[in-house]
Amino acid sequence: MTDDELLRYSRHILLPEIGVEGQERLLASRALVIGAGGLGSPVALYLSGGGVGHITLVDHDTVDVTNLQRQIAHGQASVGRAKVESARERMLQMNPLARITTLQEKADGARLMELVAHADVVLDCCDNFTTRQAVNAACVAHAVPLVSGAAIGFDGQIAVYDTRNPQAPCYACVFPPDTTFEEVRCATMGVFAPLVGIIGSMQAAEALRLLAHTGESLAGRLQMLDGRRMGWTEIRMTRQADCPVCAASRRG
Question: Residues 125, 139, 173, 186: which is the catalytic one?
């Protein structure tokens, strides 16, 4: 590390669980972030500030004034701009050493397969079931850990899906692809502003710990937050032998 990096990341380095070795792992790592909105904003800022070596940020959308209530990577001057470019600008203000690739696109299954192949961790910060399933399939195919978060209304959830662990489930084990339900979005249901910050910050924490090789991840555990009373519930999850994604991958 350079003198600038030693100073910038000194508060990480002072932690015995991270130290110089863990920070060097972070600097050598690559993170793929799907979504630069409510969840993606704190994720992007904490990953760049924490010293993740290369961050690829994917989002097709532009900043709207209704986003500013909760999407902390964007400001009034960013309205109308691509979210990925607005977030990149803020990330570089926080850490000019950050290496960031921005992709203003709505990544499909084939594109995600390509992008995930080059990542050490993937953070799902999107807002629709179809993309979540496609991200999961790519992560299973390439054995890349997936940090998944969701938030709507006053309810949030977070989990890590890491099929490198033979006991740990993938996203499709818990939320089968053939499940039918009505999509709910912030535009129609609303969302408590700090909720996305809480869940997104936890996603960043999980990714940083995975990359630094410290602590125990949330693999096999789904944590759910009721923001009305700030109460957490944890559910243990196991891999499903008949899962159409990770079981099929093992057979292949």
Answer: 186
